[in-house]
Amino acid sequence: MTTGAAQAGPAAYGPSSRRRKRALMGLGGALVAFAFLAPYLVMVLDSLRTSSDVKSTPPSILPRVWQWDTYAQVLGDERFLNWLKTSLIVASGSTVIVVLVAIPAAFMTARHRFPGRGLFLLLVLVTQMFAPTALVVGLYRQFFELNMVNTYGALIITNAAFNLAFAIWILHGFFASIPLEVEEAAALDGATRFQVLRRVMLPLTLPGLVTATIFTFIAAWNEYVVALTLMIDDDRKPLTVGMRAYVTGYEQHWDQLFAASVIAVVPVVILFAVIEKHLVGGLTAGSVK
Amino acid sequence: MGSVHPLVALLWLAPALLLILGVVLYPAIKLFDASRSEFSITGLRRGDAGWENYAKVLDHPSLGTVLVNTLIWVVAVVAVTIVLGLALAQFLVKQFPGRRYVRWAVIVPWAASLIITSQLFVLLYDYNYGIVNHLLLGAGVIDAPIDFLGDDSWTMFSMVVVGVFVSLPFTIFVFIAGLNAIPDDVLEAATVDGARPRQRYRSIVLPLLRPALMIATVLNVIYVFNSFPIIYTLNDRNPGYLHDTTITFMYKLAFKSQEKDVGMSAAAGIFNVLLILAVVLIYLKIINWREETSR
């Protein structure tokens, strides 16, 4: 065997081989991360090109000219600000409703026995499986008859209803894990059920509340099909629907579309990473008992 | 767990019940109403249609294509997602430098709006300017650019790739949770007993992972079936229903086709609802839902 030849036989199980294995895995990890991020890197790079550079042949990896003022343009665009306003109103409104409605429901089902409890939880589970997509024609008829097409209210309650389940499961789990003694001690002090909830239980479920809040906000922020159907006026559309106007048969501002996309995606990704730990539990709930 | 009078409980559950009845159940009833009505092209109800809308859906010349597309879409996306997701999860539970950051990167397609990711892929797939064609041409894999979204033999494949890409994060995280739940000592005991890695995997890890596998599969079937933005966006410039699934087919019938037939779309919607309900029943069976154990 000549010197310099790779000698990593199966018998070479020293610390250096272990270190090499870890380094290789780190490299593999970097590749996996790159695979998931690559499309979004293209999005960020495209938001910094001129519109003609986005559509140039052959495409270049890096922008030919770095054009930073697309972001200023988008943020100064009145249409964009209207869409952003709708997204903020709808996402915040749905989140407030979901949290206010989910807390009493989760508290009651997690800490008390009563007839119909299982039925209620079953109903919650079934609504979780029903994305509004399949019901969109029914939703449209309903809000059309209520004269609520084009209203924030319609979008807010729809998003609230379809995201309620996740919040109930998450909070249910947190409430259920609080030891009975904590609640009993408070009850002995003469606290009413509502006081027990507010002063004793809620502070203990704070991580659950944060998770429910962020999850609902993001789901409503990203919602597409109901908004597409219900919001017909241009200045009432949320970001997801409105943004499409940047690239149509008439105007093709890919740079602006992607700048708007970056603005819509980045905050949400950061928030999502915060609640990572609790996501699976909330989405597979009913199964994790 | 204390007992409580049903009326008191009802009071605490009332807001949630109102929301579910008002915005999930009522639209479902409206959907059924609409499916039994006749509408003008502007969406005004003109009268009863009986079961005629259902007959029109069943007679629709594109129904066969749409059903086959739906089957291919759901089976292909879910199958590839489960296999790839399991492999990636297995990798991501191992200890290596930077694992935390890799997991964060994996979250991104999940957190980003589906419609934004879909629009992004429209450009990535572009015939003239898309980076996918550019890279494949550069690497010499292909001689001429591929029209990923316009060439009928490529459209479904291109959509499935995006479907897998956005379904992987949730799936990977479900599997990571499942793998982490397998107690270390069980695996150690097997190693001590002389089980080799492959045996250990086949006879211990996989059986213990079964619940996670089932849950990930059924939930993905529902999510992928319901998935609207990917097909709606990537298939946007193709006329007709050649690459539509039952969900986009239903939407186009009411809002985008020449016929703008709300009644027929509603009938198609009822079929979709029944399909989802069937899968939900399977899910309930898998997670072994019982009233008493639901705590």
TrEMBL record, chain A:
It comes from the Bacteria. It is found in: Cell membrane. Residues 84-275 form the ABC transmembrane type-1 domain. InterPro entries: BP-dep_ABC_trans_perm, MetI-like, MetI-like_sf. It is a multi-pass membrane protein. The chain crosses the membrane at residues 23-42, 88-107, 119-140, 152-171, 200-221, 257-275. CDD domains: TM_PBP2. Pfam families: BPD_transp_1 (PF00528). The keyword Ion transport does not apply. Keywords: Cell membrane, Membrane, Transmembrane, Transmembrane helix, Transport. Belongs to the binding-protein-dependent transport system permease family. This is Carbohydrate ABC transporter permease. It comes from Intrasporangium calvum.
